[in-house]
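[Meeting: bench + compute handoff]

Bench side (C.D.) handed over the final construct sequence. Compute side (W.E.) agreed to return the predicted structure before the next meeting so the bench team could plan truncations. Sequence as handed over:
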Amino acid sequence: MKKMKLSFLVILTLFLGCNEKVKKTEELAEVQTEEKSREIWTKERANDWYAEQEWLVGANFNPSTAINQLEMWQEESFDAETIDKELGWAADIGMNTMRVYLHDLLHKNDPKGLYKRMNEYLEIADSHGISTLFVLFDSCWDPFPKAGEQRDPEPHVHNSGWVQSPGQEALKDSTQYPRLERYVKETIAEFKDDDRILGWDIWNEPDNMTGPSYEKVEIPNKVDLVLPLLEKAFVWARSVDPSQPLTSGVWVGDWSSHEEMTPLQQLQLEQSDIITFHNYDTPEEFEKRIK
């Protein structure tokens, strides 16, 4: 089994309820749906939820024996022993939550197996007093994910094997949206009342263009393709009425001013039950920065 050096990226995460419902700009894609979804949380509901949490300290977690989220969850490489050991290390230094990535190809190829392993992971995490924020989609790094055996890590290269979800091919192909819809709905529905789950991060950093790592193969209009799919994904997720909050991890921008936000950022703010900011400031410094 491949070995990687384990590194924890410590994240201080602040959860904020929206102060008001933000009016959509004309640029936002309209979601056509006949489904009745639960309401987006009010500021009061979000604050009540947050008041029930202890101070959340954690990391993005992937076991050191997996190069990416596919290798973490696929049956042949799922490593419960390492997950247990490394979550134990995290608990020993005071961590109480983990942000853990899934992938649409895992659901496409083996949904029942995925849910079985997710439950096993949750049992392990819960035994260490760790809650989990699951991430469904991610715009970061390699845009061409492939299921099956993953490549070896490249020494000294940050996230040398991490893959996007959905990949570029699916993102450009709207005929794959029904498959992605099943992934979102069925996965959340399977665990929608599970109190071991802190929440559902619908899409991590949806406007991340990966910088120099993959800029030669990224499509210039990637954000334009992500925008309507992200909006649909929120509707899909909300339609199964999860008890846990929905969010979308932010990437860049001035979040203290609605006028300075892009249409995608406005969508993240409007559709999220809570807003998750991942940062390295002290809580006091961070609150000052977003006011």
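W.E. noted at the follow-up: The first strand starts at residue 9 and ends at 16. C.D. will use this when planning the next construct.
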